[in-house]
What does this fold into?
Amino acid sequence: MREIITDLNQLREPTEPVTSKRASGQLADILINELLERGGADALAADGLAANQLGFTESVCVFRGPPGQPPVCLVNPVIYKEIGSITAKESCLSLPGVVVLVKRPERIKVSAHNRYLVPVQHKFAGAMARKAYHEIDHLNGRLIIDYEEGQIFCPVCVLATGTSLVAQSTGKLLIREQNLLYQRGYDKVERVAGDGVIVCKRVDSSESFISPRCEWCYDKEVAKDANINENE
It folds into this structure.
C-alpha cells in the first residue's frame, strides 16, 4: 500500500483537472486498488480515497459503492446541487485519530467524468452522498477540521471508552502540551482549527500529526509521564 499523505499544507492544495484519458484510467486503477487493499476494520481501512491523499495532483477520487457493487470513480467532479442536511461523525486517513462532527447535505447531484473522460451525472443520497462530498472536499483542498460547526472529539477518550467527549483545549492546556511535545522531540506546535486541534511538527522533519486532547485524558497522560520520570 502507498503511504497516505498527512501533511496539512500538501492536503490543502487543490487538485488540477484531468485532460488525458490515459492518465485518468491509470490513476483510477491505482486508487481503486489502494481502496480495495484498505478493507477491514483496522486503522488502515478506508471508505474512499482522493488522489492528493496519495501524493497525486489530479482531480480523481474513488469511494466504496453500495454492498455488492464496485467502487465509484469520479474524475473532475463538481457538486452542483445540494438538498437537505445531516450531521454525523467523520474520520479521515489523512488525520489519524481525529473524529469530527460534520454537517453535510442529505442528497447531492454531481457532474463529473468517468475514467474514460466521458461526461457523467450522478445522484447520491445518505451515506453515499457523505462519502462523495468528503472525497470531493479533498480534491478541493478542504478537510473535515475546516468545518466551523464541526465538533472535534478526543480520540483518546473515544478509543478508550467509546464515548464522544469533545476535546476542549484551553490556553493553559495548549502551553502544557507544547512543553510536553517539545521534550519528546517536537517543535512548532500551533493551533490550526478550533478548540483542541494541534499540529505538531517534528524537529528537522516534515512529519506532522493532529493531536486533539480533552482536559481529562491529557491530565492522565501528564500524570503517567510524571510517574515514569520519578521511577527512572
